[in-house]
Amino acid sequence: MQLAAQLADATGREAGPLGEVPALFAAGQLLDNLPVAIRQRGQPREPKFDAFIGLPTRRGLLRWGEPIAREHEGDRMSGDLPKADKRKVRQLAGIAWERELRQELRKIAAAIEEMENGALSPFDVNDSIHDFHDGASRDLYRQYADALPWLGVSRAYCDRVLTDEDLVDASDEVRNGIREYAASFAKLGAEEGTSDEDSRDSAER
Predict the structure, then answer these.
(1) To the nearest 10°, the Cα dihedral for 141, 45, 176, 97?
(2) Is 53 part of a structural domain of the chain?
(3) Residue 39 belongs to some domain of the structure
């Protein structure tokens, strides 16, 4: 409830359940009003709310986001976009967030079904729900409610959560920018995969 109250204060809305956050985000009401300090080069991010510390983290976004942001520093995507483009990026973030959240919730549904079939106990399902809350749910929130949503959107495009069909209505600048950032994510992912394979080979020798 404390975070909900803080978000309400930032958005000028009455405090409600945290489930309203994706809707606020998609409508552009969260990021437009949320007073999050944007990190300058060489300076740590200092968000107003503790809940935003360490953003973003989803699947290496924290580790990869910083070098990618530095690589593209000065281009239009890392600067000021027209309002229409910002709105489109937020919309894409909302779409990707919903898709990934739905996928994670299906795992909970599968666990409940296994419980009904006797394969899992209610305690097992309860543990799964706690793991979801502390893991995937929180990570997705951090990825898509970040002060720089285009990083999360680009990562989602790299992971094929978003497709070219989703980018049809985006401006050329947004579409090309997302693809460029996604390519950077893919490159870093390939390099990390190669590094992991080399480490395994060395260990086997």
Answers:
(1) 0
(2) no
(3) no
Query: By CB neighbour count within 10 A (0-12 exposed, 13-18 middle, 19+ buried), where does 129 fall?
Result: middle
pTM of the model: 0.60
**99 is written with which tokens?**
């898709």
C-alpha separations of 196 from 58, 95, 182, 186, 191 in Å: 19, 32, 21, 15, 9
The stretch 39-54 carries a mean pLDDT of 34
For residues 72 and 67, give the distance between their C-alpha atoms in angstroms, rounded to a whole number. 9
Check residue 80 and give its pLDDT: 73
The Cβ of residue 135 has, within 10 Å, a number of other Cβ atoms equal to 11
Residue 44 lies in a domain: no
Number of structural domains (the chain) is 1
By CB neighbour count within 10 A (0-12 exposed, 13-18 middle, 19+ buried), where does 197 fall? Answer: exposed
pLDDT in tens, 106-164: 999 999 999 999 999 999 999 999 999 999 999 999 889 866 788 899 999 999 999 99
Q: Give the distance from CA 136 to its chain's centroid.
A: 10
